[in-house]
């Protein structure tokens, strides 16, 4: 049986896997490993400093994050995508894109294209995607999919390599927040939850230049290094330690988060998630089992004080729904259907 050959095209800004920040790049790293474990031939189009244990191809050796001005980032993304698609079309059975710019070049190749939509809904992107009806789109949550209208589209929830995340049964007396320090991520609300619950908070995450004012005026004045700690941007082993040892991770999202990888990372460590409703949250957090969803910081603080979640049960739930094996199987099923159906429309599936 001939092995499938899949080209995974990453944006040219962050290494695969990411050293610290990089949700899309973490997804690509996990998927590449999962596909290889199932005997699929994978080539990753990324940057030269990537360390993924898979064949890589690159046009730009070094990453660039935070991104430069929009024009520079757009031109770099277009150059990388056009080069990657042209080269991948010579050997790949399917080209799997992970950013919007590359779709423009799908018109010039006969190889089937899969596009995973990683961003939140924006009307301009929805209109852009309508120009490419032959592409097979993957949304990362049902919430995200319901806002889009493409003929070939299905939801595949993210999954992670659970063996990398040990379960911590004995928690330490603190709450955690992990994510970009930004108003939409609700860092200030996580601090409110900590203060209202009386439980200390440890914060990990990147401070991007555009949110420096938010950090300086809203967050930093409340960081005392004792009750409220800021630990900086974190590598994987640091994230695991932060999440695994905490009583709960606070996820007070203030925008329509299309997925939220950090939620399943916390659950993989046996740590419950205390979240506000929004975007995909209700698809990921199982109320009463893997955490609680409440609309206010007062209610989340009450949940934090009254936590009674079982770390092992949280891990079992996470493995059932958000494992790398499940995600890989779903993508292989999609690739197989595309190759078997040829130019016929892939039936829309509600995951």
Provide structural commentary.
By secondary structure, the chain is of the alpha/beta class. It has two domains: 5-159 and 323-341, Glycogen Phosphorylase B (Rossmann fold); 162-321, Rossmann fold (3-Layer(aba) Sandwich). The protein is built from twelve helices and 13 strands. The strands form two sheets. Strands 3-2-1-4-5-6-7 form a seven-stranded parallel beta sheet, with helices on both faces. A six-stranded parallel beta sheet has the order 10-9-8-11-12-13, sandwiched between helices. Helix 9 (281-284) links the parallel strand 12 and strand 13. Helix 5 (187-197) crosses helix 10 (297-305). The relative contact order is 0.13.
Sum up the structure in keywords.
351 residues; alpha/beta; Rossmann fold; 2 domains; seven-stranded parallel β-sheet; 13 strands; 16% strand; globular
Question: How are the SSEs ordered, and which strands pair?
Answer:
Layout: E1 5-9, H1 23-37, E2 41-46, E3 56-58, H2 70-88, E4 94-97, E5 113-117, H3 123-129, E6 136-139, H4 142-146, E7 153-155, E8 172-178, H5 187-197, E9 201-204, H6 212-219, E10 228-230, H7 236-245, E11 246-251, H8 261-268, E12 273-275, H9 281-284, E13 291-293, H10 297-305, H11 311-322, H12 324-341
Parallel strand pairs: 1-2, 1-4, 2-3, 4-5, 5-6, 6-7, 8-9, 8-11, 9-10, 11-12, 12-13
